[in-house]
Amino acid sequence: MNLISFCIILTGVMLNAVAQLALKASVKEMGVIGLNFSSSSTAFLKLAFEPFLWIGLLCYGISVVVWILALSRVDVSIAYPMLSMGYVVNAFFAWQLFGESMNPARLIGMGIVLLGVYVLARS
What is the DSSP string of 42-88? Predict the structure, then answer.
């Protein structure tokens, strides 16, 4: 894989990660959204006016365009597993922004993921 292809994939991964974090930020103050119609319809109405929801959806939309560019250059069997870098990015920023747990087992797991991405990118 060449540098341009890797950068396009990395851009798609980062946009996807930002989208996830924005969606989390949009529901952070809401608590658990119920599965029944009355509570979920109220929650979704409230979400409609949440700027982070729209930022997340915009990032997803742009990431689809970037992902199409990536897939036009790289085999899907190489590109798709590289999305796992997003797990590492999201875990780190969720820890920083939302105070989510970060423990040695998670750090080891993220290291394994990054090692796998490195091996894959070199193939």
Answer: HHHHHHTT-HHHHHHHHHHHHHHHHHHHHHTTS-HHHHHHHTTHHHH
Query: Which token pair is 44?
Result: 């979704």
* Contact assessment for residue 33 and residue 39, using Cβ atoms and an 8 Å cutoff: yes
Q: Model confidence over 32-68: pLDDT tens digits?
A: 877 777 777 888 888 899 999 999 999 999 999 999 9
Domain ranges, residue 11? 3-122
Single pTM value for the model: 0.85
Residue type, 51: P
Structure tokens at 39: 């509570």
User: Number of folded domains in the chain?
Assistant: 1
